[in-house]
Task: inverse folding
C-alpha cells in the first residue's frame, strides 16, 4: 500500500502556479506614476500618426474648377477664352461645362464677342485648364483626374483602406513573434515611407501604390501602443485608458485640420504629416517591451527588470513570492505549451454551428459593419459639407469628444444594447433628414451631419466591448477578428458611396442613414451583457441570450443581478451565501465597475493581439 502511494506521488504532475500580471498590478500600482508617464508622454502621442495618415489624403485630392483647354485661344485672357470656347451649364448663368467645348475653327471664326449656341460640341481633346488657387495644389490638377478620370481619387482612397486588413495581418504576426516595440517602429517606418513616396509620385498609379503602402499601417500603428498601454495598467483602469486613447486619436484629427488649413500644397502636406514622426524613434529608449510578451517567450529576466522598474517608480517593490511563482511558471512553460498544442480548441466554425451563436455572430458582424462604415463614411464626407471644408472637418472631429465621454458614463448605467441602438438610430435619422432639405440649406445640413457624427462616434465606442462580452471566452479572439475583418470591407466600399455625392450632396448621407438605422434596430435582438454572467465556453455562449423575448427588448436599464464582483468573468465563482468584502476607507475608487468593458483578443499565453479595429 505504501509502495502504491509512493508510486502515485512519483507519477503525479506538478501543479502550475496560478499567476497573472493582473494579480500583481494592484500591489505595485495599477495606474501609478510609471503608467501615467508612459501613457501621457509615449503611448497617447503615438496614436496621432494613424489619424494623420488616414485622413490627410482627403485634402490631397481637393476638387479644382476646370474647363477644356483651347490652344488656338492661348493669346487671350483666361476669362475671355472661357467665355468664347466653353458653353454654360444648362440652368446656370455663371457656371461653365467642365468636360466639353465648342468645336469651332477659331482661325476662321476670328475673335467674336459672344459664342454661337448653334456651334457643335466636342470633348476636351487638348487637355484642361485649371483655375489657379493661391499657394494650393491638388493631385486632381497635377495628374488631370477630371471628367473620365474623376473617380480616380476615390480609387486611391479605396486602395488606402485595402491596405488595412493586410497590414494588420503582417504587423500582427510581427507583433506576436518579434515583440511590440519592434512592430511599432517598423510600422512607423512604413507609414513615413509610404507618405514620402506619396509626395514623390509623378503619376496617379505611383501615388495610389504609395497610398496603399501607407494604408498598411492603419490601424496597426494605433493599436500597438494602445495594447502596450492596456497591458501595463490594471484591469480597473483599462476602460479609462481606452477613452484616453480615443480622445488622443480625435485630438490628433483636430491637429490635422489645423495643418491642412495652413498647408495647401499636397506634396508638402504629405511630408508635414509624416516626417515629424521621425522624432518618435527617440521612444526606442523609453518604450518598454510588453512584460506579458516577454514571459510568453520565456525571457524571464527582461520581464522582471521591467516589472521591478514599474514597481520602483510607483514607490513599491516587486514581491519575492511573485518572482518565485514566475520562475516556477517558466520551468513548466515548455511542457505546458507542448500539451496545449495537442489540444484542439474551438475554431471559427463554432461561431456558426448552433442557432443562437449563429444569430449573435451575424448580428454582431452586421452591427460592426454598419458602425464602421457609417463612422468612416461620415468622417470622409465632412469636408464636402458647409462653406469651409476645413471648418467642417474640424467640427466633425470636435463633436466626438463629448460623445466619447457621455458614452463612457452611460455604458455601465444603462447597459450596452439600448445606448448602441439609440445612438445608431439617431445617427441614421439625422442623416436621412438632410435629404428633405433644400440644396441651399448648407448650415442646417452641416448641423444635422454633426449630430449624426457625434451619435455614431458614441456607438463606435460601444460596439467593440459589447462584441467582446457577447462572444464566449474560448472564441473571443476569433469572433472579434472575424467581425472586424468583415466590417473592414465597408471601408473599401465607402469611398464609392461618397463619390455619389458629386451629383446629389445628400445621397451618401441617405445611404449611410439607412445602414445606420438597420444596424441600430438589429442590435435590439442581442442580449444585454451588463450585470450578467458572461459565457466562458461555446456551450455557455449558445445558452446566453437564448431565452430572449420582446419584453426584455423594452427593458432599457438592466436590473442588477449580482453586485459583489468586480469582473463578470468571476461571477460564476461567487457563492450566494458569502458576505461581500466591504471597501476600505483608503481604497481607490474604480473608474469602471465591469472589468470586461474592453476585451482584447488574447493568445494562449495571455498576451494581447491586434485586430482590424479602426
Result:
Amino acid at each position: 500500500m505504501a509502495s502504491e502511494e509512493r508510486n502515485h506521488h512519483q507519477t503525479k504532475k506538478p501543479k502550475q502556479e496560478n499567476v497573472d500580471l493582473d494579480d500583481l498590478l494592484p500591489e505595485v500600482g495599477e495606474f501609478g506614476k510609471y503608467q501615467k508617464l508612459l501613457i501621457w508622454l509615449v503611448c497617447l502621442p503615438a496614436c496621432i500618426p494613424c489619424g494623420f495618415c488616414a485622413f490627410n489624403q482627403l485634402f490631397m485630392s481637393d476638387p479644382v474648377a476646370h474647363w477644356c483647354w483651347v490652344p488656338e485661344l492661348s493669346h487671350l485672357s483666361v476669362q475671355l477664352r472661357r467665355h468664347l470656347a466653353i458653353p454654360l451649364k444648362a440652368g446656370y448663368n455663371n457656371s461653365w461645362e467642365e468636360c466639353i467645348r465648342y468645336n469651332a475653327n477659331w482661325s476662321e471664326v476670328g475673335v467674336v464677342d459672344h459664342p454661337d449656341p448653334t456651334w457643335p460640341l466636342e470633348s476636351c481633346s487638348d487637355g484642361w485648364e485649371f483655375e489657379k488657387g493661391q499657394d494650393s495644389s491638388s493631385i486632381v490638377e497635377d495628374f488631370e483626374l477630371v471628367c473620365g478620370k474623376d473617380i480616380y481619387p476615390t480609387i486611391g482612397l479605396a486602395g488606402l483602406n485595402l491596405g488595412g486588413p493586410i497590414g494588420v495581418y503582417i504587423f500582427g504576426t510581427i507583433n506576436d513573434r518579434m515583440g511590440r516595440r519592434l512592430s511599432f517602429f517598423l510600422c512607423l517606418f512604413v507609414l513615413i515611407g509610404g507618405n514620402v513616396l506619396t509626395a514623390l509620385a509623378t503619376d496617379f498609379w505611383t501615388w495610389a501604390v504609395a497610398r496603399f503602402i501607407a494604408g498598411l499601417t492603419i490601424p496597426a500603428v494605433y493599436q500597438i501602443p494602445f495594447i502596450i498601454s492596456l497591458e501595463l495598467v490594471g484591469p480597473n483602469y483599462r476602460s479609462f485608458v481606452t477613452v484616453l486613447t480615443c480622445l488622443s486619436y480625435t485630438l490628433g484629427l483636430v491637429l490635422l485640420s489645423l495643418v491642412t488649413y495652413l498647408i495647401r500644397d499636397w506634396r508638402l502636406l504629405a511630408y508635414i504629416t509624416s516626417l515629424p514622426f521621425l522624432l518618435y524613434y527617440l521612444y526606442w529608449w523609453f518604450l518598454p517591451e510588453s512584460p506579458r510578451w516577454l514571459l510568453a517567450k520565456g525571457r524571464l529576466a527582461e520581464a522582471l527588470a521591467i516589472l521591478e522598474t514599474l514597481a520602483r517608480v510607483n514607490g513599491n517593490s516587486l514581491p519575492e513570492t511573485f518572482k518565485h511563482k514566475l520562475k516556477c511558471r517558466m520551468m513548466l512553460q515548455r511542457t505546458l505549451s507542448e500539451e496545449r498544442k495537442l489540444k484542439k480548441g474551438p475554431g471559427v466554425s463554432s461561431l456558426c454551428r448552433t442557432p443562437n451563436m449563429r444569430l449573435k455572430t451575424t448580428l454582431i458582424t452586421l452591427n460592426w459593419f454598419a458602425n464602421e462604415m457609417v463612422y468612416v463614411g461620415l468622417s470622409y464626407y465632412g469636408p464636402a459639407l458647409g462653406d469651409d471644408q476645413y471648418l467642417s472637418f474640424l467640427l466633425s472631429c470636435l463633436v466626438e469628444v463629448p460623445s466619447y465621454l457621455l458614452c463612457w458614463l452611460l455604458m455601465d448605467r444603462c447597459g450596452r444594447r439600448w445606448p448602441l441602438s439609440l445612438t445608431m438610430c439617431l445617427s441614421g435619422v439625422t442623416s436621412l433628414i438632410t435629404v428633405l432639405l433644400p440644396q441651399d440649406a448648407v448650415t442646417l445640413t452641416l448641423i444635422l451631419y454633426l449630430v449624426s457624427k457625434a451619435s455614431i462616434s458614441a456607438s463606435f465606442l460601444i460596439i467593440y466591448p459589447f462584441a467582446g462580452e457577447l462572444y464566449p471566452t474560448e472564441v473571443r479572439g476569433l469572433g472579434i477578428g472575424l467581425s472586424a475583418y468583415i466590417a473592414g470591407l465597408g471601408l473599401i466600399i465607402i469611398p464609392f458611396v461618397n463619390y455619389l455625392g458629386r451629383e446629389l450632396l445628400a445621397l451618401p448621407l441617405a445611404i449611410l442613414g439607412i445602414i445606420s438605422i438597420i444596424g441600430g434596430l438589429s442590435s435590439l435582438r442581442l442580449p444585454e451583457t451588463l450585470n450578467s454572467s458572461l459565457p466562458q465556453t461555446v456551450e455557455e455562449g449558445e445558452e446566453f441570450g437564448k431565452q430572449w423575448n420582446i419584453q426584455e427588448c423594452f427593458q432599457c436599464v438592466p436590473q442588477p443581478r449580482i453586485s459583489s464582483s468586480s469582473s463578470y468573468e468571476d461571477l460564476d465563482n461567487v457563492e450566494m451565501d458569502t458576505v461581500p468584502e466591504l471597501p476600505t476607507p483608503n481604497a481607490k475608487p474604480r473608474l469602471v465597475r465591469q472589468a470586461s468593458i474592453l476585451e482584447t483578443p488574447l493568445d494562449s499565453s495571455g498576451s494581447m493581439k491586434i485586430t482590424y479595429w479602426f
In short: The mean pLDDT is 79. The longest strand covers residues 66-68. Residues 442-470 form the longest helix (29 residues).
